[in-house]
Design a protein that fits this description.
Blueprint lengths: L5 E8 L7 H8 L5 E2 L11 E2 L1 E9 L2 E4 L5 E4 L4 E4 L5 E4 L5 E9 L6
Antiparallel strand pairs: 1-9, 2-3, 4-7, 4-9, 5-6, 5-8
């Protein structure tokens, strides 16, 4: 858990077939402090009480947002998440790596 602090991590997102996505996603996103119960029904969809600065190191990674929004990121691309519901998905042909700086913050309403 990041509570009151920050951490840096590197995640490997495996290549998955559509029918294999749900099971493989659970292993790839087994990170403390992630709220996986967003009610979206999309595997891997989650929120965090943090500001996440993600940098694609290798591969092609799609970040999925609410309302079907999808942006495909390639090596060197940066995505900043401010607690919004989202999911990461490897859309390439090889395993992808994503570095993230996660800074804890309190969630506020309004």
């Amino acid at each position: 858990e990041v509570a009151g602090g920050a951490r840096v991590m590197v995640l490997t997102l495996p290549v998955v077939e559509d029918e294999d996505w749900s099971a493989r996603t659970q292993a790839a996103y087994a990170v403390d402090g992630v709220n996986r119960d967003t009610g979206s029904g999309i595997p891997g969809f989650h929120t965090t009480d943090s500001i996440d600065i993600a940098i694609v190191l290798t591969g092609r990674i799609a970040v999925l947002g609410t309302g079907g929004l999808q942006e495909v990121l390639e090596p060197g691309d940066i995505c900043i998440q401010n607690g919004a519901p989202h999911a990461w998905r490897n859309v390439g042909t090889e395993d992808a790596k994503l570095a993230a700086v996660v800074i804890a913050t309190a969630r506020t309403e309004g």
